[in-house]
Amino acid sequence: MSLLSNVTLVKARYFVILAAFLSSLISGCATMEGAGEDIQSAGEAVEEGAQDASN
């Protein structure tokens, strides 16, 4: 193999690793956003329950 093809192979490997990392990062953000919405809706339900109990 020539030096040029080795450099190209290394760049391709780094690109694949970077793409995998970025896709996991993006999906992680979406998951955290969904978890935040779930926690928020649970908190609202608890708050409504407390208001109903006090009335």
From TrEMBL:
One CC-aspect GO term: membrane
Any GO BP annotation: response to toxic substance
Top-rank lineage group of the source organism: Bacteria
UniProt keywords, alphabetically: Cell membrane, Lipoprotein, Membrane, Palmitate, Signal, Transmembrane, Transmembrane helix
InterPro entries: Entericidin
Homology family: Belongs to the EcnA/EcnB lipoprotein family.
Protein name listed in UniProt: Entericidin, EcnA/B family
